[in-house]
Design a protein that fits this description.
By secondary structure, the protein is mainly beta. It has 4 helices and 41 strands. The strands form 11 sheets. Strands 1-7-6-5-4 form a 5-stranded antiparallel sheet, with no helix packed on it. The protein has a 5-stranded mixed sheet with strand order 2-35-36-37-38, with no helix packed on it. The chain is globular. The two termini are about 45 Å apart.
Length: about 550
C-alpha cells in the first residue's frame, strides 16, 4: 500500500493553482521532452538553490552563498525543525524554488524551506529485511534527484520511481535488479542527473551481488544503458579475477559526479566478494575498488583507476568524487580528487585517469608503505588477511567513507572527515570477518582534516572526541569562509575554512549520518542538516 499526503500550509496559493488533483496536474503539467531550462537548473543552479546531492554535479559541496560568514556565524540559530518517522536519517536535503525535498527509507517529504511545513509526502511499506541488501534493510537512503517537474528516488528494493515534484504523484516505476537474481540487491543512493539521463546504482556488494550502473530516460523510465562492474567469461576484464568462475561484488551504492563539457560520468565502484578471502579471485578483480569514467550518453568506458587491487579489507571506492580545475604543480589542470577508504588521498588527471599524486591522509596506516608512480600500492605484511586475524589499519569502515567531502578553490583546501582506527581482519569465505580493536592508549578517533591539493599535506586538523561510529557527518564549505560539519558529540559546528578555528556550534545531542547543505529563500541564507530523526534548518538571528 502506498500513501500520498498533500498539505496546503504556506503553499495554499500554489496549491490552489494546482487544482483539481495531484494526479491530473501530473499528466497535464509535464512536457514530453527535457527543456534546456530544466537541465540548466541542475548544471548551473540558481543562486540559493541546492538541486542535487552535492549541490552541483561536480561534487564539490561548495556553496557561493556568503550571507552567513566568519563575521556573523555566531548569530546563527535554529529556524525550524522537522521530525521524520525514522532515525538516524542519512538524507541530504535538496531545495529548488523554496521547496525542500528530504527522504527516509521508502519515504519522501516536500517541505516549505522557510518553515519546515509539510507540503506533501509519499511513502510505501519497507521491504522484508531478508529480501534486500543489509544497508537498505536497516533504512539507509541519501536523497533524491530532480529534473524539471520530476523527482527521482530509489526504494530499498532498488526500484527507481519518478514522482511529480510539486504534488508527489507517482508517474512511473522500474525495477533495477535482473528478474532472475537473488533478492540481495538494495537501493540507498540519491540518483544523479547526467547527460539528460537519470543515473542510479545498487547496493549489496557484501551479500555477493553482481554490481552495475544504470541510466534511464527521465521521461519514460526506459533503460538506456547498463554498465556491469564485474565481468563474465569473455569480457575484457575477466582474466583480472584469476579464474573466479562467477565474480561478485562491485556495488555502486554512492552517487558519482558529472562533467557537462565532456559529457563524462565519474563513479566509484565497491569491493569484491568475499570481502576478506581472495583465494578464488587471486587477480586485481576489476573494476572493483576503482573510479571509472564513462561516456554519459552510451555508458562506454573511457578510463578506470584502481585504488586497491585484490582488496581484502572491504575498502570500496564509494567515496565522493570531486571535480575541479585547479593549480597543480605550476599549472591549471583538470583534476579528480578522491580521499579513499584505504587511507590515501589521490589526485587524478580526470581527462585520462592518470595518477598525479597519492599521499597518506591518516597516521594509522600499515597495509602499504606508499603508492608507486603507476598507482599500485606498495604492500606491507599487514595487507594480508589470515584465518587467525591480522591487525590492519585503516579499520574496516575506512580512513573515510561515503560521507561528503568539500573543496574550496579560494583556500585550495580539500575538507574531509577521516578516521584513525584499526581492525582485526580474519580471512573468511562467508563474506568477511572483522573485529574492532580496543586500545585505551590509542582510541579510535574521527579527525576533520583540511588537505592541500597541491602537495597533499595537512593544512589543519580538528580531532573530534567520541566514538567515530556515532558520526557519519560530511562537510560543507561556503564562500563565507566557513566549513560546517556534525560533531561526534552530536553538536553541529562551523569553523574557519582557512584555519580550522571554531566559530560556532549548536548542541543537538543526536547522531549525524547526513551531510550539511545551504540554501537561500527570500534573501535569507539557511544551513540545514539531518540529525537523528530530524531535519534542522538554521539562519541568522
Amino acid at each position: 500500500m502506498r500513501t500520498l499526503k498533500f498539505r496546503l500550509g504556506a503553499f495554499a496559493a500554489l496549491a490552489t493553482l494546482l487544482a483539481p488533483s495531484p494526479p491530473d496536474l501530473a499528466r497535464e503539467a509535464i512536457s514530453d521532452h527535457i527543456s534546456p531550462a530544466a537541465m540548466a537548473a541542475v548544471i548551473h543552479p540558481k543562486v540559493g538553490d541546492w538541486p542535487t546531492y552535492s549541490g552541483n554535479v561536480d561534487g564539490n559541496r561548495f556553496s557561493p552563498l556568503a550571507r552567513v560568514n566568519t563575521g556573523n556565524v555566531s548569530s546563527l540559530g535554529l529556524a525550524w525543525i522537522r521530525p521524520l518517522p525514522y532515525s538516524p536519517l542519512e538524507t541530504t536535503p535538496l531545495v529548488l524554488g523554496g521547496i525542500m525535498y528530504v527522504t527516509g527509507p521508502n519515504q519522501i517529504y516536500a517541505l516549505d524551506a522557510q518553515t519546515g511545513g509539510v507540503i506533501w509526502n509519499y511513502s510505501r511499506p519497507r521491504s522484508a529485511p531478508r529480501t534486500v541488501a543489509v544497508d537498505a534493510a536497516i533504512g539507509a537512503n541519501r536523497g533524491v534527484a530532480v529534473l524539471g517537474e520530476r523527482l527521482y528516488f530509489l526504494t530499498d528494493n532498488a526500484h527507481l520511481i519518478c514522482l511529480q515534484r510539486i504534488t508527489g504523484a507517482l508517474l512511473w516505476e522500474v525495477r533495477l535488479p535482473p528478474p532472475d537474481t537473488a533478492g540481495t540487491y538494495g537501493g540507498t543512493a540519491a540518483p544523479l542527473i547526467a547527460g539528460q539521463l537519470v543515473i542510479v546504482g545498487v547496493s549489496g556488494g557484501d551479500q555477493g551481488i553482481r554490481g552495475f550502473l544504470d541510466a534511464y530516460d527521465p521521461i519514460t523510465g526506459r533503460r538506456v544503458w547498463r554498465f556491469w562492474t564485474v565481468p563474465r567469461p569473455g569480457d575484457p576484464t575477466y582474466g583480472s579475477w584469476g579464474g573466479d568462475p562467477s565474480p561478485q561484488g562491485g556495488p555502486t551504492w554512492s552517487i558519482g559526479s558529472y562533467e557537462p563539457a565532456t559529457n563524462t560520468l565519474y563513479v566509484g565502484i565497491g569491493n569484491p566478494y568475499p570481502d576478506t578471502d581472495g583465494d578464488q579471485r587471486p587477480g586485481d578483480d576489476l573494476y572493483t575498488d576503482s573510479d571509472v569514467a564513462l561516456d554519459a550518453r552510451s555508458g562506454r568506458l573511457r578510463w578506470y583507476f584502481q585504488f586497491t587491487p585484490h582488496d581484502l579489507h572491504d575498502w570500496d571506492a564509494n567515496q565522493p568524487l570531486v571535480l575541479t580545475d585547479a593549480r597543480f604543480q605550476g599549472r591549471t589542470r583538470k583534476l579528480l580528487l578522491h580521499a579513499n577508504r584505504n587511507g590515501f588521498f589521490y589526485v587524478l588527471d580526470r581527462t585520462n585517469g592518470k595518477l598525479l599524486q597519492a599521499t597518506p591522509m591518516v597516521k594509522r596506516l600499515n597495509w602499504a608503505t606508499g603508492i608507486a608512480s603507476n598507482g599500485r600500492p606498495i604492500l606491507a605484511p599487514a595487507a594480508q588477511t589470515t584465518p587467525g586475524g591480522t591487525k590492519t589499519c585503516p579499520a574496516v569502515r575506512g580512513a573515510t567513507n561515503w560521507y561528503s567531502a568539500a573543496f574550496d578553490a579560494a583556500t585550495g583546501l580539500y575538507y574531509v572527515m577521516t578516521v584513525e582506527d584499526c581492525t582485526l581482519y580474519q580471512k573468511s569465505q562467508k563474506g568477511g570477518d572483522y573485529y574492532p580493536l580496543q586500545d585505551p592508549r590509542q582510541p579510535a578517533m574521527k579527525v576533520l582534516r583540511a588537505l592541500r591539493v597541491d602537495g597533499g599535506g595537512i593544512a589543519w586538523q580538528l580531532p573530534l572526541l567520541g566514538n567515530p561510529e556515532q558520526n557519519y557527518s560530511g562537510v560543507l564549505a561556503t564562500a563565507g569562509g566557513l566549513v560546517f560539519f556534525g560533531e561526534t558529540t552530536g553538536a553541529f559546528a562551523a569553523v574557519a575554512a582557512a584555519t580550522g578555528r571554531y566559530l560556532w556550534h549548536f548542541d543537538g545531542n543526536q547522531q549525524f549520518k547526513g551531510s550539511p547543505m545551504t540554501y537561500m529563500v527570500a534573501g535569507r541564507q539557511y544551513v540545514a542538516i539531518a540529525s537523528g530523526p530530524n531535519i534542522l534548518s538554521f539562519t541568522l538571528h
